[in-house]
Amino acid sequence: MQAPALLDRFGRVATDLRVSLTDRCNLRCTYCMPPEGLDWMPGDEQLTDDEVVRLISIAVGRLGVREVRFTGGEPLVRRGLVDIVRRVRTLDPGLEQSVTTNGLGLDKLAAPLADAGLDRVNVSLDTVRPDTFTEITRRNRLDDVVAGLAAAEAAGLGPIKINAVLLRGVNDDQAPELLSWCLDRGYQLRFIEQMPLDAQHGWSRDSMVTAEETFAALTACFDLAPAAEPRGSAPAELFTVDGGPATVGVIASVTRPFCGDCDRVRLTADGQIRNCLFARTESDLRTALRAGADDTELAERWIKAMWGKAAGHGIDDPGFLQPDRPMSAIGG
Ligand code: SAM
Questions:
Q1: How far is the CA of 278 from the centre of ligand 1 (A)?
Q2: Residue nearest to ligand 1 atom 10, measured at CA
Q3: How far apart are CA 138 and CA 37, in angstroms?
């Protein structure tokens, strides 16, 4: 039997590809980047639409990738997004394609994306209070996100998942309120622990809100029970809410890491393979691609990049160093 293509030394196989389409974003979430933004990637360093589709075609056609999620930065600001989705759909009708977005502009793009072959969206929303939204994102755009969510639902991009990060003293008292809001609309909420990936290096283990605290806050208002469905490689621990069928997820990336089950690989907007969100090295496919490498050589480089994946992200190791790139430039 042929060995799986994107295998690492610990026997994990990557089948879920996160593709960052840009490092730019139209929000300025305090836990992600400073108010003035960052030095954006020069345009010529960014992969073109053709280059993105070519690398995805190698991943899907030769390397066993079964799921592609577009992210960023904010993927909806990438002009070619709808076209990229349409072209990737033609590679494999069974491929799962999704987008992780802050929801801005989704009111207009949801229908074209669905038409192009997108399966679903994950929308990031940390609060449903306008003042808290403005405090966290530094933009007064909550209404646009809500409109984007409604459009995604209408376009059939469900099940809609909402990702939320709780920040101490900002929205950590709002977990039950956010869950009620999502339950009313049929959205699947998942809380994600804040990770040391902010451009400002402001994260601290002592101040982050843990999954355990989130769970405790939710159980004060809801009856949560472990969901029956197997977790597999999914990062979220799922719980049924008040007897189900609705669920809520908690992603304990820091306090209960799930690296042993990781099936992800990342392609940055400038064509670097990252075998882990926290990797401190990358493998450059863009230079090889632009130098004329054929698909076989690019696939071989990709396979080699995955083999070196570390056993775990190492946040708890005494020598842990945050990656040079922030989350927005890696692709969350
Ligand atoms: N702009 C898109 C969005 O908002 O979904 C995609 C990129 S964003 C970096 C992806 C996700 O990463 C968002 O849900 C965001 O809340 C989350 N995120 C950003 N910085 C984070 C951090 N330091 N720890 C945990 N999650 C973070």
A1: 14
A2: 332
A3: 11
Which parts of the chain have pLDDT scores under 70? 1-4
Q: Which two tokens stand for residue 237?
A: 């621990």
Q: CA-to-CA distance for 204 and 257, rounded, in angstroms?
A: 17
pTM: 0.97
Place of tokens 């992200």: 313
Estimate to the nearest angstrom the gap between the alpha carbon of 30 and the chain centroid: 18
Q: Which residues contact 102 (CB under 8 A, 6 or more apart)?
A: 25, 26, 27, 74, 76, 123, 124, 137, 145
Determine the distance separating the centroid of ligand 1 and the alpha carbon of 332, expressed in angstroms.
5
Closest approach atom of ligand 1 to CA 123: 5
pLDDT digits (tens, 9 = 90+) for 64-118: 999 999 999 999 999 999 999 999 999 999 999 999 999 999 999 999 999 999 9
Per-residue pLDDT reduced to its tens digit, 105-157: 999 999 999 999 999 999 999 999 999 999 999 999 999 999 999 999 999 99
Our answer on whether the CB atom of 332 is closer than 6 Å to any ligand 1 atom is yes
Report whether residue 171 contacts ligand 1, using a CB cutoff of 6 Å: no
- The residues, any chain, with a CB within 8 Å of residue 62's CB and separated by 6 or more, are 5, 295, 299
Q: Ligand 1 within 6 A of 326 CB?
A: no
Q: Would you state the structure tokens that stand for residue 263, as one six-digit string?
A: 């099936």
CB neighbours of residue 144 within 10 Å: 17
Closest atom, ligand 1, to C-alpha of 32 = 20
